[in-house]
Amino acid sequence: MSILINGIGVSSGIAIGEAYVYSREQKQIREYNVPAAQHKKEIQRFKKALSRASEQLHEIKNKIAANTPADILAFIDTHLLMLEDPTFNEGTVANIKKLSCNAEWALQLQSKRLVKVFDEMEDPYLRTRKDDVLHVVRRIQNCLEDTPDHIPGAHQLKGRIIIADDLTPADTLMLQHQKIAGFVTEFGGPLSHTAILSKNIGIPAIVGAHHARQLIKTGETLIIDGRQGMLINSPDRRSLKHYRALKKAELERKALLHALKNKPVVTTDGKVITLHGNIDRPEDIRKLRKFDHTGVGLYRTEMLFIEKNEFPDEDTQFKTYKRALFRLKDKPLTIRTIDLGADKELQDAADQGPMAHNPAMGLRAIRRCMKEPELFIPQLRAILRVAALGPVRMMIPMLTNIEEMHLVLRLIEKIKQQLRDQKIRFDENLQVGAMIEVPAAALSADAFAKHLDFLSIGTNDLIQYTLALDRIDDEISYLYNPLNPAVLHLIQLSINAGKKMGIPISLCGEMASNPQYTRLLLGMGLEYFSVQANALLEVKHIINNSKLSRLRSQIKKILEHQSTHEIETRLERLNMRESKKTPT
Ligand code: PEP
Ligand code: MG
Q1: N or C: which end of the chain has fewer CB within 10 A?
Q2: Among the atoms of ligand 1, which is closest to the Cα of residue 464?
């Protein structure tokens, strides 16, 4: 009999294959007394388990493909760092001594303490990071008990769909290495490592499929639909036929999109559109290249600061930006100055607390940079210098008023003079632009456009500030909608301002990466999109099959509506009609 199980789809695509239920025995941790005379030996046993766990992670790193991107390997490095973290291991050693207990029990107590700290964090992403603690603890416990860290061999797993309670980043990478067709976990949410990694790797995946291991047996046929977050166990012939056809269509679509790689971006009536990618680090350019050889419309430099957990000096920044520029060959690079604060904070600063009461509205981005010139000036110098080597632009986040913009422009001129005096090579004509991501800036976009070389709309924040919604708060995420007429009005004002002054205006928030909005934005007059790497070809496909003159009038009519729901329904209808005319 078929069974349908729902979970959360975190990586889209359809997989059909045999199930492999991956069950790890979760042993009950027992406490026993270790007399003081034995403490040293017990601590040594714990340290040996730590080294074994570290060896295992290094072995995994060596096994996975050499071209695994650095950001994916970083998941394993996080676990390696945790093994060395004093709060982790010294806390456990202290427990052994204080409670005269065995290492397993001491570690369990310490992990509960750490998990509690994560559980109390406000940021949902950081809350999810308690998974790292649990994964590392499980690995050490296995090493203490000499339980092998075994994932079945490749011959057993190739083409199979893995069902597990939870997967560590190391498990996920090893499974990918063994060419599995997809995976399902009982636990984990959309921000879990499994979710992030599966999307990165491009394997269909579902998380939060409760009781899946009870309901499915190894060897049974499974279908998983990663977009819908649904799995069917022992499907009947009709379902199998239906999903095989869907999978075939999916593969054909992939091939169709792939054929668009490095092709021009132009509407059917001849309008050339700029389509760039968003990156967090120079290494991300490799991912961009997988889809298209294009430029970067948003380089979020704060990652360099957050990952190092310190402010890198001018030369480190210069070298990093140069690496990005050279990787792009002759394509343009838009470097955004640091946007630290709110949800993007250095760990040390976050630890030091107390946080501002309302950090998203506090000392963030350009406000923080202007208040802390020792933080900002090395970056300005590095960007001005790197711009002498190729097509680089500088973008300022979160400008709110014209005075602030003038202060920034004046500071840039001052730094230029410094560089001239020091006879250091830089770009005299560096293009400087602003992100329009605060409603006040959108309402004054005309004034910004008069003094700047380009604008870029940051809808992630623009929606947050226009609708008074914390962008990372799960509770109110249902209200977070780019189609709210007030948001669309501000986007329209910004596009119009750029056009009136004849300067480029792009959109680099998540909205640009969602193909549902591509026709809407084109119809509103947007000619420059900057999107996530994996959205490049989908968005290009829609642009290249759109007739701009027709879209303009259709979208104008839709925008006359005053309700989000009405706009949503009409846009869906338009997308449906248009996609029927588009080859798939
Ligand atoms: C935005 O706000 O839309 C944006 C692109 O910036 P970030 O998401 O980095 O705040
Ligand atoms: Mg922003």
Answers
A1: N
A2: 2
